[in-house]
Amino acid sequence: MPGNPVVEAVLDSITVPPGAFVVDFACGAGQLGLALAARRPDVSVLGVDHAPGLVERARANAPDNARFEVMSIEDLALEDASADVAVSLFGVLQVGEPGKTVRETARILRPGGVLGLAAYVDMRANPLWSATETVLARHLPPDSLPNPVVQPSLAGPDARERLLHEAGFTSVRTRWFDFPLPLPSFEAAWGLAASPGMFPVLNDNAEVREELREAIVSYEGPGGGS
Fold this sequence. Notes:
Keywords: Methyltransferase, Transferase. This is Methyltransferase domain-containing protein. Pfam families: Methyltransf_25 (PF13649). The protein has eight helices and five strands; from the N terminus they run αβαβαββαβαααα. Helix 1 (about 5-10) packs across helix 2 and helix 5 (about 125-135) packs across helix 8 (about 205-215). It has a five-stranded parallel beta sheet with strand order 3-2-1-4-5. The relative contact order is 0.12. It starts with a helix and ends in an 11-residue tail after the last helix. With about 230 residues, the chain is an alpha/beta fold. The protein has a domain at about 1-120: 3-Layer(aba) Sandwich (Rossmann fold). The chain is about 35% helix and about 15% strand.
């Protein structure tokens, strides 16, 4: 069964030393941390997230070399220079105040430590976002729609790279990539579109649902749409 392409991209982008202690920032249900723990039984993974429900889901699937705790990623209960590697899947640079999160990441890493992360920049590159935004724009005033630019304070050219350098990271590499997001049904697409990270203003309005169903019909099938 193929893995999540974003998880694989993050893990493939970093070198994890033997026996490393790795912290997964904003771990959610543990997708990234669990994948690393399975890939590398020799490392120790700690996943942290502010949401107890998600942490419990991660714990339910945790192997012996992974644990998950409820913590704020802006104020971790970890010693300075205590981790070898930090990773994050749409958490660092997206959740909370980016400057605080990046500085906290740098604080807990040992000298020479590594950070690997994935972050959205502009949600309009996501076809489901674009389709939902177009539909909702016909029903809601423009100022009620969420900003498609993730963390507007980092919208300028190289803003993320500058923030990382200012926090103490000396070598920053950025890779842009597209990835498929298979959804088994329209109900799954609707649920994702209505999630807190996208359009929580969605309700069960039948007209909106039908318009969105029609808007994404071209993405149905094994190859999706373009």
